[in-house]
Amino acid sequence: MTIAESSPAGAGASTRNPVLEARRLVKTFGRVVGLDGVSLQLYPGEVLAVIGDNGAGKSTLIKCLTGAYIPDEGQLLLDGQEVHFKRPQDARAAGIETVYQNLAVSPALDVASNLFLGRERRRPGVLGSVFRALDTAGMRKDARAEVQRLGISTLQDVTVPVENLSGGQRQAVAVARAAAFGSKVVILDEPTAALGVRESNMVLELIERLREHGVPVILISHNMPHVFQVADRIHIQRLGKRAATITPQSHSMTDAVAIMTGAATA
Fold it and tell me: What's the pLDDT at 1?
């Protein structure tokens, strides 16, 4: 359970090959157009924020990237190779992990069990193969190592049930699980929604640590200050299309909102 190391994206990201690339994706639902020729590039070691008003196509785009939806047209490339995800499990197998707003953690299980949820390891030998005993000690050891690697100081005890954790700590568990197994890309859907200031800052610090470890992150968020705090680039969706891709250095929060609402163009 390791995190791939590489240098952060920085200003030279555009000179590299994207880790994940979408080319002119189209997705319709009857007469409703969810995506209308949307392209997106995610480079090594960067945080790419995706913003847009309700109905702009953010969720549809992310679902097409993660196998929940199959695009009607367009291409999806991972490390330069075209991929065809028919279900979320295909994206996960390829190294794309997603943390949704509902977190999908099991409150009754401890931190270590949640990190390995759906990927439980069995003990070696007869105990694992015949009696199907879980390697609880091994999973807890690796969970502690992953938590320490990410510098999550609030999750020192991986044997604590998740139901005893705060909202920010639960979010940290979900992000740690994604980072542990998302060897290519981690996608975070509104990770600071419904969190207080302190817990939101904890999650933002965790996103920055993922970048430091070279893990590219797609961040979907309505919170502009958070977006401008951690994003390297910002992909703006409007009415099913990509309205612009900007940076916190080239545009202000007011500019981003104006582009998002159609009051201005990039």
Answer: 45
pLDDT at 259: 97
CA–CA distance, 116 with 246 (Å, rounded to integer): 36
According to the model, what pLDDT value does residue 103 have? 65
What would the pLDDT profile of 43-72 be if each residue is shown by its tens digit? 999 999 999 999 999 999 999 999 999 999
Element (H, E) at 254: helix 253-261
CB atoms within 10 A of CB 251: 19
- Whole-number pLDDT of residue 7: 39
Cβ atoms of 120 and 127 closer than 8 Å: no
Q: What is the CB-side half-sphere exposure of residue 258 using CA atoms within 13 A? A: 10
Domain residue limits at 235: 17-106+181-261
In a domain, 266, yes or no: no
Assigned domain for 87 exists: yes
At 15 the pLDDT is 58
The whole-angstrom separation of Cα 171 and Cα 101 is: 9
Number of domains comprising the chain:
1
- Please indicate, yes or no, if residue 67 is contained in any of the structural domains: yes
Instruction: Show the low-confidence residues of the chain (pLDDT under 50).
Output: 1-14
Q: Does residue 149 form part of some domain? A: no
Let me know: does 264 contact 246? Beta carbons within 8 Å: no
Measured CA to CA, the distance from residue 14 to residue 164 in angstroms comes to 43
CATH code of the domain covering residue 246: 3.40.50.300
- What DSSP designation does 183 have? S
